[in-house]
Specification:
530 residues, 2 domains, twelve-stranded antiparallel β-barrel
Length: 530
Amino acid sequence: MTGPWDDATIAPRGILRIGISPRFGQWRERLSADGAREPLGAEFARDILGPSLFPFMSGLSPALTSLTGLPSPALSLGNLATQLDVTEVTTAISLDYGVTSRVGLRAVIPYVKNRVHVTAAPNGVGVGATLGLNPAQLMAGARDQNELVVAALGAAASRLTSELARCMGNQEATCAAINADRAGAMMLVQTADQVSGAVAAVYGTPTVTGGLYAPVAGAALHTAVDSRLTQLNAQFRGFLGAPTSGEWISARPVPAPPMAAADFVQLLGDSVFGISARPLGDYEHSHVGDIEVGVKMKLLDTFGPPATAPLPRAGALRVSAAGVYRLPTAQLDLPHDFADVGTGDRQADLELQGFLDFAFGPRLWVSSVLRLGIQRPDRLVRRITDIAVNPFPELAREQEVGRDLGDVVELELAPRYVPNDEFAVSALYRYRTKGTDSYNGSFQVSSIDGTPLSLDASVLGIGTNETEQVLGFAVTYSTVRGYSHRRARWPLEVSFVHSEVMSGRNVPRQQTNGIAFRLYRPTRWNALRQ
């Protein structure tokens, strides 16, 4: 019996070996570039959601400086905590046919179902947000309230301008404060005009659109705005005295609430923010993976036919070589879904394989497999970031780029113990390494806020080299030898399989459980019994 791991056997001549192997994988952690374990959603977790991540935000700085008096106002939508895990069900249908006793054909058709579960929680603990989504973008009442502030500043500035003209050379008591500091009064008029324009530019009015973001209620920026308006009101009182009723500037612009989950969905999905992406949330899809076709040739065999020969003697060898072509039939992860997991690379690959089986005795033997995957260049659509760790690239960065995935080398060892004709237990060790991916393409585009962007696709290759070490085990029940001796009705094998990524770099820490089922179907009568 061969069990679920690869070995040097091929299907017997004239036999079609049909395999169905559903395997259930899950991962919620990944191994970083230094091999440390980290949550799978770590790249989306941010202590500060600042201008480097979202368009339009940095454009508010000049107006906010006028509003607050702060030379470098801190701009942040707060923080983001993200939990992410992936469940993947891969059902591989394999077809092996023995053309001769030494040559076999093989095809593998994987069908993959992925479920990505994402929980994105903005501003859950220790908010720290200075900006939120501007309520005036949706609420006419907020725009009207902001207009009251603009009108009050304009009215106060207009009154002071009139008084400056009236008090020129006038010694009345009402002109004393103005004449004592005419330069300060004129500066106050200019400041009020600047602050009035900044209120409209940031918060918005019925006639001015305003920013997409506005200062958060109770946070540093809005507190500074309130203090600035209070200060201006006091200055106007100093020059003009108290108004007939109320204050010169008593109204305040409508602040934003801290960004909540629904706001974050809007931020990613609404085209006005420039990102135009699928929100971080649960998503499930199914598609065929990358189909494999290949040929395998047995070069040396002192084991004998697996079904009918006596159990191998110590020192028996079986050596084979194979060539596999992997078709680009999978579904890629979507460029506008930042947490998506594809069903394969969707890239044409050529893989060379070498197999060696060695028997330590009649009941114990080991298989070793060496694979070299040569990946072919292609083109695809990706979003190109300035820094590889930017998790929310905007739509303007979506371009068709050239791609050449790094070549892959795998070494696999699988010892097997066969206590009798029906049962076997086996283990697996696999070492895999993949080179760095190469991307090419340069583009000059503009961000949605008008900022010119120079994009270099080579940044997409940063951190794409991979290594991993996998351990696994399997328990197999087989009727193949019993069928060959007419003790069983059907020649089949059933295995329970478990494997787990134990260490590595830049790979998911995946655990997999599954069932491997193989049925031998003679295409000529009694092929297994000859």
